[in-house]
Amino acid sequence: MRARVYVTLKPSVFDPQGRVVADALVTLGYDDVKDVRQGKFFEVELSDADPATAKARVTEMADKLLANPVIESYRVEVLQ
Amino acid sequence: MKFAVVVFPGSNSDRDAFYAASRVIGEQAELIWHKDNDLKGADAVILPGGFAHGDYLRTGAIARFSPIMSAVTAFADRGGPVLGICNGFQVLLEAGLLPGAMVRNDRIKFVSQIVPVRVEQTDTPFTAACAPKQVLHLPIAHGEGNYFAAPDELKALEANRQVIFRYSSPAGDVAAEWNPNGSLNGIAGICNRQRNVVGLMPHPERASELPLGSADGRVVLASAVKFFQDLKASRPQGRTTSSPQALA
C-alpha cells in the first residue's frame, strides 16, 4: 500500500523560496501568478494494511517526523 | 570543569568548539561521537555547528534521533547546561528542548559575516560573565537562521525573558536594518524556561581569538566556567562531585 504526504509551510509562515519562484514566473511572463508556496512531497510504501490503519499510521509519521508542526502543515492521502 | 562537544556526522564546528573550550578557555573538553550513550561526566554540553546528517529533511531533524541525544535530554532535564551553536541550536529546536523553529533566511541567501549581537539576559550559564546589554561581534554562517515561533509562543518567550541574544547595531540598537535573516524580534538566541539550555545562531567559538576577527565570543564559554564555579562555591562543604546530578 502506498501513501502520499504533502507538507507545506503554514499560511502564517513566510515562504521566501516560494516568493522567489513566484517572482521568477512573473519574469517569465506569467503575470497572472499571484503567489507560490513551496512544499515537500513524500511517497511512503507500507506493508499491507487496511486504508484506515494506514492513514492513521502515516498521519502519526507526518506528525512525528515528516513535518515540523511549529511551521508546517500536512495532508495525507492513502492510495488503494 | 569539563565540556562535552557532541560530534554528529556533518558537524563542522566541533573542533572549533573543542579548541575554544580547551585551548582558549583552558578547561577540559572531550569530543563525543553521536552514537555514544554517555556524556562522560561532562559539566556542560555543546552541540556544535555544521550540517548534522546533511540537514536532510529539515535542519536538525535527523540529529535529534542520534543515540547521544537521549543522554543530552536527560542531562538538560537535570538542569545541566547545554549550548547549541548554529546547527546545534537547530537540533535543540527539533528535539523540543527549545521552543520554535527555523525557516529560510528572508533574503534566501546564505549569510556569512561578523555581526553585532546584544546580550539580553545574563542569568544563564552561557551569559553569566557578560555585562547587561553587552554587544558582542560574532560571526554568523547560515541559510536557515530565521527564527519563527507562533504569536503566543513569542509573547511567552519575551515575557519570560527567554530571548538571550538579539541582532543589533554596534551601539546596541535593535532595528530591522541590523537583522540579517528576518528572525522574529531580531532573535539570535534563546533559552528554555529553566534557563539551562541556550541556543544561538552566531558562533562564539569562532570568535575567541583576535586573529579570527573578534575575541568577543570567549565570554560565552567563560560564562559557563563562572557559572560552574559559582555553583561549586554555593554547594555545601564535603560535596565535591561534579556529576550532572549535582547541577539539578
Q: Going across the major beta sheet of chain A, what is the strand order?
A: 2-1-3
Number of domains of chain B: 1
Q: Name the helix and strand elements of chain B from N-terminus to C-terminus, one letter apiece.
A: EHEEHEHEEEEHEEEH
The CATH architecture of chain A comes to 2-Layer Sandwich
3D architecture notes:
The complex is a heterodimer of chains A (80) and B (248). With 80 residues, chain A is an alpha+beta fold. Chain A has one domain: Mth169, Chain: A (2-Layer Sandwich). Helix content of chain A is 35%, strand content 29%. Chain A has a 3-stranded antiparallel β-sheet with strand order 2-1-3, with helices on one face. Chain B has one domain: Class I glutamine amidotransferase (GATase) domain (Rossmann fold), CATH 3.40.50.880. Chain B is α/β, with parallel strands linked by helices and 248 residues long. In chain B, the strands form 2 sheets. Chain B has a 9-stranded mixed β-sheet with strand order 2-1-3-4-11-10-9-6-7, with helices on both faces. In chain B, strands 5-8 form a two-stranded antiparallel sheet. Chain B has helices at 14-24, 68-77, 87-94, 151-159, 218-234; strands at 2-7, 28-33, 44-47, 82-85, 101-103, 111-119, 135-142, 146-148, 163-167, 187-191, 197-200. Chain B has 5 helices and 11 strands, in the order βαββαβαββββαβββα.
Describe this protein with a few key phrases.
heterodimer, A: 80 residues, alpha+beta, Mth169, Chain: A, three-stranded antiparallel beta sheet, 2 helices, B: 248 residues, alpha/beta, Rossmann fold, nine-stranded mixed beta sheet, two-stranded antiparallel ribbon, 5 helices, 23% strand
